Amino acid sequence: MNTTLVIFKKELKDTLRDRRTLVSMVAIPLILFPTLIGIAASVMRSQMQKAQEKVLRVAVQTSGNAAGFVALLETQTRIQVVQNISADSARAMVANDSLDAFIAFAPDFDRQVAAMHPGSVTFSYKATERQEIEKRRLDALLAAYQEALRVERFKKLGIDPSVNRTMRIDEQNLASAREQIAEVLGGFLPYLFIIFCYIGSLYPAIDLAAGEKERGTLETLLTSPASRMEILVGKFGVVVLTGIATAGVALIGMYIGILQVKEIPPELLKTILGILQVRPILLLLSLLLPLTIFFAAGLLSLSIFARSYKEAQTMITPSMIVIIVPVFIGLMPGMALTPGTALIPILNVSLATKAIIAGNITPFLLAEVYASLIVLAGLALFVCAKVFGREGTIFRGT
């Protein structure tokens, strides 16, 4: 045990001297995360403001109808009405962004409305994420004009306009604020934790195996009184520690990033910070421990098998896809933690994270997730020990 601890301290010291490890473990999650969150919030705020303040160029073809709608548009300070343009030209201009929208009223629109029938209107637009805000501005004006026509029609008939409202629906969303936020954070946090656990384990695993083979220091370590298993456990402990530590630093970076977004309402911020308390965070980190053991064992196995640092990077880099895909599946609508999904590695951590944040994790399913991860970690560690125990693998290519 003392020998293992000595090797662990030695490998940890060497790892902390490696700049690549420090960058991936500290600099990226702690500095990059708040920066990215701040930039994203700033860009989103700027884009929304631009979309709200932009002067929209709207072509309107009335065919002598809907004078009230044209008058309504002309009262808007940030809408420029373009008339006397053919439908084909207007649609072409919308497609190439020369116009923001084209609204065409049918030639018999006024007659149909006067006859108590619905009048036809064609609303042509080109919507991207930012332009969707612009479209909603015009949707609101069309809805206001429609409501004005409805009220006018009922007045002519001598009927109270509210007579067509057969129900008054009082919607009540019984999902707590925590559960609603979990739908957002629950999809984001698994990426944060799982990916950074993997990245935090990546460089130490490559350096402590393939890196030492390339430098020729692994042979020196093998000639020491330490057994091969003690050497492996020492290296393995460092890789696991850096993986967990990187996830913890990433969490701190996210916390700092959230605090710097001033646009978050105080009530919402209070709820978010309430979720990020000690108990749920410790529960999430406990889920990551067996998962990080799996990552560490798999990465060390590949790194030990590789002839050089570069070959290890080439072999390990594609494995990122295996990590990302299950987490991405966990974001899909309808995906929830069930007795079946609790057995699927990585996906179960993604779904369990969402349930923990929402505060509705089932003890049985949580235990199933733990069992699945522990078995997976045990198998990966067994394979890693077998790989490290083979002379042909350690001295492969030498």
Shape from CA axes?
A: elongated
For the largest beta-sheet, the strand count, sense and barrel status come to: 4 strands, mixed
Which strands sit side by side, in order, in the main sheet? 2-1-3-4
Order of helices and strands: HHEHEHEHEHHHHHHHHHHH
Portion of residues within helices: 55-70%
> Which structural category fits the helices and strands?
mainly alpha
Average residue pLDDT: 78
DSSP, total strands: 4
- Give the low-confidence spans: none
- What oligomeric state best describes the polypeptide chains here? single chain
- Structural domain tally: 2
Radius of gyration: 31 Å
> Approximately what portion of the residues adopt beta-strand conformation?
5-15%
Helical segment tally? 16
Q: What is the straight-line distance between the termini?
A: 31 Å
Tell me about this structure.
With 398 residues, the protein is mainly alpha-helical. The chain has two domains: 2-33 and 176-394, no CATH class; 56-163, 3-Layer(aba) Sandwich (abc type-2 transporter like fold), CATH 3.40.1710. It has 16 helices and four strands. The protein has helices at 2-17, 19-53, 67-74, 87-95, 109-114, 131-156, 177-215, 217-222, 228-259, 266-275, 278-305, 309-316, 319-329, 347-358, 363-388, 391-394, and strands spanning 56-61, 79-82, 101-105, 121-125. Strands 2-1-3-4 form a four-stranded mixed beta sheet, sandwiched between helices. Helix 7 (177-215) crosses helix 9 (228-259). It is elongated and about 100 Å long. The mean pLDDT is 78.
